[in-house]
Design brief:
It is a single chain. By secondary structure, this protein is mainly beta. It has a single domain, classed as Neuraminidase (6 Propeller). It is built from six helices and 28 strands.
């Protein structure tokens, strides 16, 4: 009887220590808690196919520090930042995440944001550390340390902060955003300024992750082999591989690599190995694109060329290569034409911000269609962002705090 009671007490102790906290965490609301606006949801619900609506002005929320206030982020939200346009969807949060730097004006910051459509809210998840300059640590680098070969801030954020180009992805299993943070900062000089040994500097791919639930950055230092990290590459989460592919096709690197978080290691997928035509078919840098879960394809579009990466076949194929003056194909570029997957229609949706035009791509027919939305006109600001919201079935354009939604197919 005593042995039974002891065993029961041990079981109850384990239950209290491990199982119950897990259950509580599973039921916890996403933080920050943002209250949905019924009027906004009603407008979105009433959208018909090929219709758009201006939803109004978003709130900007967060624990803003002096750096954030210096650049009016508490009023404007993050705004688009030159070659930093990509937003990624966090399915368990039902929100879209954003980070990355401007070219240099007005700032270079390591802040992180998310947007919640239901509540019409920008929320800052990580207030920026001190601002950096184009090639170095900025005028004030009192918040910088050199640890384990990595330059990071005392809060754990990246000191080197790059454009995202299309090098941003979200791992729904680990609930973290990944960012290939490659930039021209003279890191050896920075280490010397801090009194460190430049020979100890980590020189592998600068892959960082950010976990929204904890508000923390993490650098993923990996052993060789690993890929190069040129500007303008593509980072995309692939469910089959439970990791992110990192892809570029230029003189610096012609390959598609896979980052496997379980082992914290890289693997060259040797795409197009049998046909030896990777350079001919694979998307070139500054592409935009997405993972198509219906077809198990990565769709990439760059200038007037569209390429498919078949995950199962491990093969890139250029399916469209139109002339520069072709009018039936949009111009794809990671600084001016974001592109996302619409799981409802199965199409890709691309917005050409320069011309304020919207396009749909059908992977089965391998064709582009220029769309003419009905309803509210798209905002025309020069610092716009965009993402697709699967929970509401709409493409969202964010012109600062002015929010516009478009339903391609109901």
């Amino acid at each position: 009887m005593t042995r039974f009671l002891s065993g029961t007490l041990l079981l109850l102790s384990l239950l209290l220590l491990f199982i119950l906290p897990t259950l509580v965490r599973a039921g916890e609301p996403v933080k920050p808690v943002l209250e949905a606006q019924p009027a906004v949801l009603e407008k979105i619900k009433n959208l018909q196919s090929n219709h758009a609506v201006l939803l109004g002005q978003a709130k900007v929320l967060g624990d803003f520090n002096d750096t954030a206030r210096k650049y009016n982020l508490h009023k404007t939200g993050p705004l688009a930042r030159d070659f930093t346009l990509k937003m990624v969807w966090a399915p368990e949060r039902k929100r879209a995440l954003f980070c990355g730097a401007n070219h240099g004006v007005p700032h270079r910051l390591n802040d992180v944001w998310e947007f919640d459509l239901a509540s019409l809210s920008w929320a800052m998840l990580y207030a920026p550390d001190l601002p950096r300059d184009y090639t170095g640590m900025g005028k004030d680098f009192s918040d910088v340390v050199f640890k384990d070969g990595i330059l990071l801030t005392k809060r754990g954020g990246p000191v080197v902060i790059a454009h995202t180009w299309w090098g941003l992805a979200y791992d729904p299993a680990l609930r973290s955003m990944y960012f290939m943070n490659t930039w021209v900062t003279n890191q050896k000089k920075c280490v010397e300024q801090l009194g460190g040994d430049p020979s100890q500097l980590y020189t592998g791919p600068p892959l960082w992750s950010f976990t929204p639930s904890t508000g923390t950055w993490k650098m993923h230092r990996t052993a060789k082999p690993f890929p190069a990290a040129p500007f303008g590459g593509m980072l995309e989460f692939i469910p089959k591989h439970a990791g992110c592919i990192w892809h570029t096709n230029n003189w610096q690197m012609q390959a598609t690599w896979l980052y496997e978080p379980k082992t914290n290691a890289w693997r060259n997928l040797d795409a197009n190995k049998k046909t030896a035509d990777f350079s001919k078919h694979a998307a070139e840098p500054e592409q935009v694109g997405y993972y198509d879960s219906k077809r198990n394809l990565v769709i990439a579009h760059r200038h007037k060329a569209t390429s498919h990466y078949d995950v199962a076949k491990n093969r890139w194929e250029k399916v469209i290569d139109a002339a520069k003056d072709a009018e039936d194909v949009p111009y794809g570029h990671d600084a001016r034409a974001p592109m996302y997957y619409d799981p409802i229609s199965g199409d890709g949706l691309l917005i050409q911000f320069q011309t304020n035009t919207l396009w749909a791509y059908n992977p089965d027919g391998k064709r582009w269609t220029k769309l003419t939305p009905e309803g509210g006109p798209m905002p025309t600001g020069n610092r716009r962002l965009a993402y697709f919201d699967p929970s509401q079935g709409v493409l969202v354009v964010l012109d600062g705090t002015t929010i516009w939604a478009y339903r391609h197919r109901s």
